[in-house]
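User: Can you help me understand a structure? I only have the sequence.
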Amino acid sequence: MRYSRIKGVLTMKVFIVNMSKQDKLYRIVVAKKNKETKKVEYGVAELTEAMLKDKMMRGLRVENAGLKNGVIVGTTGSLDRFLESNRFKPVVIMVELIDSRDKTLGYRISDSQGRVKNVRAEVLIDNARAAKQRGLIAIQNGAFVSQQGVKEHIRSFSSTGYPKEIIAYRNKKPINNGIKYGENKKNIQKIKEIFNKEQIQQLLIGKERGVNIKVYANPKYSAKQMEQIRLGLQQKVNVRLFLDPEFSALQMKRLRAEIAHGFDVSSYANPKYSIAQMAQIRLGVLAGVDISLYANPDTKANEMEEIRIRLENGIWCDCESSKLDPNKIY
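Assistant: Let's start by predicting it. Here is the structure, written out as tokens:
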């Protein structure tokens, strides 16, 4: 996360999250990094227009506003968005939460009361869509993009996008299948001696389909396992992730399907995991939690689920905000 350095001592970010032109009041949220704990703490305060303007003139940087000819104006979306409805106020996006592959998982937002929370991307998109249907705007410093041929998403008004924070999980390396393809070639020469009828059928189908049957020409594979590897080769997926003969055919089928859909299965491509355990690890990866806290073959799938849900609740939750003295800001 990026922070502005204030007086060379504290690092913080300031956002306007609501305003009242009638009372000339601005509500701000301050995100400040605690030097001892290294954690970000949040505070909320109300400032008069004159007070906020004075602080900005003296160097306070506001992430979604600036001064133009002595007037406070929005720099990443109009501040007038706060005034469009008395009953509905847009939220302000503070941080984009991503995984280690730069995929957007969600956002840290503040509502008009200064309540900071982490929300999933799909939740914010659902809210933005519902607001648009009512003729309202859900986000002050972003646009809800919904058009034919384009996946619905949130676009930042800033050319650099939102500050990003990684919610990382630890990948587990796929285990080595231990198969040497040179041995397979020798095996093919003795095909009728070492393979049963069903296995030979899969080799013949693979040859007809133009795949490299050496990859699965191993008597350690059952015919059903061979079928899954063959189908993977036909789909041109990375079958090396599930070549271990210890995988059941059903495990291979699941991994093959998920790889074909573009999902990174390396964190659970391990024959020691049951299909139910694989599902819980996959859900954890999608949610951005630290799967290393429960990705263990000895942990039952229902226990994994309980841990995953607790971890998710720790990410997608409200953040604590304290009241700030406006006179002590900057």
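Now, to help you interpret it: The first helix runs from residue 49 to 57. The two ends are 20 Å apart (CA to CA). Let me know which part you'd like to focus on.
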